[in-house]
Design the sequence.
């Protein structure tokens, strides 16, 4: 077995069933990183509490997400996959880190300003401390590398600054500065052809949908807005259906669609049917594996609990060092 390069940490909020955008943007990368790194993947349910109106679906959404991660290829024998709240040490580290984090810096962060616009009636303390908890997530596991898209880079920079503040304040080196692994995250556009694929915009296609549901969603996709009639030539470069063909269809088919669209040789209905069929072929293995895991949900909880036990071992060791560094009696 080749030696791994270090530890990777990444977390995602329990948003339930994952869609194509989640898969192409993050999950696929999680799976690939397992070859090179010891990976710690966390379903961050505590983070979710800062914005949710109800926790009624929290448990179910956690399970749905775990099913998608496992079916996509996260290997729980190799990687640690767990639920954030099952490792309470993260809350303790969050408190310790909050003592070295200036309040003024938190309320000036663009992500916080954005959040208060989104939920002006629920500006809670947790929302302000969100980046501190995020830093605690990363630092608790002595993470070497965090995979992020360019837009998330400031969060990792925040965590690095927090490490410097903590280590300076307590004259220690127990916390280590994580490195960023900037990942080119493809922006997957939703079925509306305009905005990023997202559940809240209802422009998404779930990975676990049935072939029929997938076809139905694909058939609603917006295409080249200038192509109004079947006989009008189209421009695949401005069409989201074509973008997805480039991911799910073979080279020859993609080339054929590119030229036939421009000459009105193929209609959008046919083009979409082809896309749906190719997606369904591509996702068939994933869906089979997911259904198998879903038939044994108790085993999936066992996987998550086992992951949490392994995570707690690392977390407690870090906290022993942190408490000593602070000089707590
Ligand atoms: S033929 Fe295909 S690529 Fe061309 S506009 Fe229609 S859906 Fe888009």
Sequence:
């Amino acid at each position: 077995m080749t030696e791994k390069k270090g530890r990777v940490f990444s977390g995602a909020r329990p948003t339930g069933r994952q869609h194509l955008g989640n898969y192409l943007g993050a999950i696929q990368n999680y799976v690939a990183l397992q070859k090179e790194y010891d990976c710690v993947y966390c379903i961050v349910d505590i983070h979710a509490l800062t914005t949710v109106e109800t926790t009624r679906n929290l448990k179910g959404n956690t399970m749905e997400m775990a099913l998608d991660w496992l079916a996509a290829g996260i290997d729980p024998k190799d990687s640690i996959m767990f639920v954030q709240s099952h490792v309470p040490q993260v809350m303790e580290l969050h408190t310790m880190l909050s003592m070295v984090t200036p309040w003024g810096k938190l309320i000036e962060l663009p992500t916080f300003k954005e959040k208060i616009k989104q939920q002006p009636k629920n500006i809670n303390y947790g929302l302000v401390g969100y980046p501190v908890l995020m830093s605690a997530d990363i630092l608790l596991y002595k993470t070497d590398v965090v995979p992020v898209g360019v837009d998330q880079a400031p969060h990792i920079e925040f965590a690095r600054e927090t490490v410097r503040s903590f280590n300076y304040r307590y004259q220690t080196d127990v916390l280590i500065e994580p490195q960023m692994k900037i990942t080119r995250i493809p922006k997957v556009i939703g079925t509306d052809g305009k905005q990023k694929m997202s559940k809240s915009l209802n422009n998404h296609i779930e990975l676990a949908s049935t072939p029929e549901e997938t076809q139905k969603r694909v058939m609603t996709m917006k295409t080249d807005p200038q192509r109004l009639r079947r006989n009008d030539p189209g421009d695949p470069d401005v069409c989201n259906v074509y973008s997805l063909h480039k991911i799910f269809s073979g080279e020859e088919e993609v080339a054929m669609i590119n030229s036939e669209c421009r000459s009105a040789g193929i209609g959008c209905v046919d083009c979409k049917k082809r896309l749906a069929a190719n997606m369904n072929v591509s996702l068939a293995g994933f869906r089979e594996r997911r259904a198998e895991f879903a038939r044994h949900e108790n085993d999936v909880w066992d996987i998550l609990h086992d992951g949490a036990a392994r995570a707690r071992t690392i977390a407690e060791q870090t906290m022993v060092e942190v408490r000593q560094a602070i000089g707590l009696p």
